[in-house]
Specification:
Blueprint lengths: L4 E9 L5 E9 L2 H8 L6 H7 L8 H10 L5 H7 L3 H13 L1
Antiparallel strand pairs: 1-2
Length: about 100
């Protein structure tokens, strides 16, 4: 019950040199705590989707935001994503809007 959130970040090469952080935040609800207790960590990505209204966001969303802000390239976003198919879908959806 003590766990309230999990924040992870990676550093991604920026277009203008240097590195930028891309993050993922899981606001830990009952489901996430249960998955952690059972060591079923493969389900945590799904928990991020379920707890979006509480403030959770995925690494892929963070990478897509950096691409759209012009800070990193599409290739770097795909290379550093845990779920590159999600990045592709989000980039496709945002370019249609």
């Amino acid at each position: 019950m003590a766990l309230s959130a999990v924040l992870t970040q990676i550093l991604v090469p920026a277009r203008n040199g240097g590195r930028l952080p891309a993050a993922e935040l899981l606001v830990a609800g009952y489901g996430a705590r249960q998955h952690i207790r059972r060591n079923a960590l493969q389900h945590l990505h799904q928990e991020i989707t379920i707890t979006k209204k509480l403030g959770s966001f995925s690494l892929e969303e963070s990478l897509v935001d950096l691409v759209h802000q012009g800070h990193i390239g599409r290739e770097d976003a795909l290379l550093h994503a845990v779920h590159p198919d999600d990045v592709e879908a989000m980039l496709r959806d945002k370019t249609r809007k």
